[in-house]
Amino acid sequence: MMGRGNVLIADDDAAIRTVVNQALARAGYSARATSNAATLWNWIAQGDGDVVITDVIMPDENAFDLIPRIKKIRPELPIIVMSAQNTFMTAITAAERGAYEYLPKPFDLKELVAVVGRALREPKVAKSSMQAPTPRAKICR
Predict the structure, then answer these.
(1) In the chain, what are the domain boundaries?
(2) I need a surface site. Which of 10, 33, 43, 92 has the fewest CB within 10 A?
């Protein structure tokens, strides 16, 4: 099942916001872009977006601090992390925090669009859906 394909972009670099936005628009997705984590968080909390693309370092908050909060309220939302800090640790941290994909900058726009498409096509099952089995009998208080 395809989602609407509404992509939220967060990066404090205006040029990156523009090229990513244009690439996604050309591919038929609707995209909204912001320069800060606070706006991104507001959009996500309101239920906006089918996929998130975020830079790690933003002026107001590090994406690695934001991702666990996002996962708490919308565990099924795929989050693509991009960073110019191309270290092995950045990639590891992205995976540990539950990022769908990590893209080192500079990245190939075709690759980014392909990753977004894949994130939208995959079944919306939370990676962390290893919750306890449903109790057979409900305990009434």
Answers:
(1) 6-121
(2) 92
